[in-house]
């Protein structure tokens, strides 16, 4: 299945610079419809208001982490099939295992470029 570049993407990160970087990378790939949330609770609110095609979330955020957001998304019957990519600065294997158990679709370690992001997104939609 090809990636639908017109689908809305939600980027969740409490670090504004990172949101800007991810937004720019998504634009390079061809995504036009990109929303942002500063933390997990804001993201949950937005996810209930709009049908997103993909969530890209940072792991380390306050007060709700990306991991907690992922668990809430997977526990919500309306959202549990939503493709979810987690971004983290540390490639700790226990984090990767925990995220996979919680139902993450893919995982990106910072720093990354447009090509990495594109291939991770393609993997999610080819699965």
Automatic annotation (TrEMBL):
Q: Is the Transmembrane keyword given for this protein? A: no
Instruction: Pinpoint the Response regulatory domain residues.
Output: 8-125
Q: Which SMART domains match?
A: REC (SM00448)
Which residues does the record list as 4-aspartylphosphate (modified residue)? 58
Keywords of this entry: Phosphoprotein, Transcription, Transcription regulation
InterPro entries with a match to the protein in the record: Bact_response_regulator (IPR050595), CheY-like_superfamily (IPR011006), Sig_transdc_resp-reg_receiver (IPR001789)
UniProt entry tagged with the keyword Transcription: yes
Give GO BP annotations, semicolon-separated: phosphorelay signal transduction system
What's the protein name? Answer: Response regulator
Task: Name the species this protein comes from.
Answer: Ancylobacter dichloromethanicus
């Amino acid at each position: 299945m090809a990636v639908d570049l017109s689908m809305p993407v939600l980027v969740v990160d409490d670090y504004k610079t990172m949101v800007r970087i991810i937004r720019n990378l998504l634009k390079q790939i061809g995504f036009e419809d990109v929303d942002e949330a500063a933390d997990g609770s804001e993201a949950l609110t937005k996810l209930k208001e709009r049908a997103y095609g993909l969530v890209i979330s940072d792991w380390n955020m306050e007060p709700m982490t990306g991991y907690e957001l992922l668990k809430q998304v997977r526990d919500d019957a309306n959202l549990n099939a939503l493709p979810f990519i987690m971004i983290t600065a540390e490639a700790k294997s226990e984090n990767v295992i925990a995220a996979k158990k919680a139902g993450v679709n893919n995982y990106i370690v910072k720093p990354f470029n447009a090509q990495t992001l594109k291939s991770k997104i393609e993997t999610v939609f080819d699965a």
